Automatic annotation (TrEMBL):
Keyword Transport annotated: yes
Annotated keywords: Sugar transport, Transport
Residue span, DUF427 domain: 2-86
PANTHER family registered for this protein in UniProt: DUF427 DOMAIN-CONTAINING PROTEIN, SLR0655 PROTEIN
Species classification: Eukaryota, Viridiplantae, Chlorophyta, core chlorophytes, Trebouxiophyceae
Organism name: Chlorella sorokiniana (Freshwater green alga)
The protein's name in its UniProt record: Simple sugar transport system permease
């Protein structure tokens, strides 16, 4: 599901049944709150096949996905769906195009050739 937000490129949310949830671990790093969508839960992602013998939870990709497990009523359609930051080492694609991550460390929009900014997230944009 493609969700468009003010001053951001679209964020893509994937249905829970399309993701191997055995590779997800809830991140102990806390949550964030969006006044529109509610409280976001962050997820660490294990490598395919899980952790190798002797592997530690810190070997997972940290906080590379998030979800709204109990969003506000207006965003109920994304309950439990997951979005991913398009930052290395992840590669995220829309069709045949590899997306660029939205600037900054907080927002998770996916920038493609047909999406034009300016976008929130870069230096000097926090007050928008």
């Amino acid at each position: 599901m493609r969700v468009c937000e003010t001053a951001s490129p679209p964020t893509y949310y994937f249905p829970p049944d399309s993701i191997d949830r055995s590779l997800l671990r809830c991140s102990p790093g806390g949550t964030t709150f969006c006044e529109w969508k509610g409280t976001a839960t962050y997820w660490n992602v294990l490598p395919p096949g899980g952790l190798p013998p002797g592997g530690q939870p810190s070997d997972a990709l940290q906080r590379v996905a998030w979800s709204y497990e109990a969003p506000t009523p207006a965003f109920g359609a994304i309950a439990g769906w997951l979005a991913f930051y398009a930052r290395p080492p992840l590669e995220c694609w829309v069709g045949e195009e590899r997306v660029q991550p939205q600037e900054g460390q907080f927002y998770g929009g996916w920038v493609t050739a047909n999406i034009v900014g300016p976008f929130k997230g870069g230096p000097g944009t926090s007050g928008w």
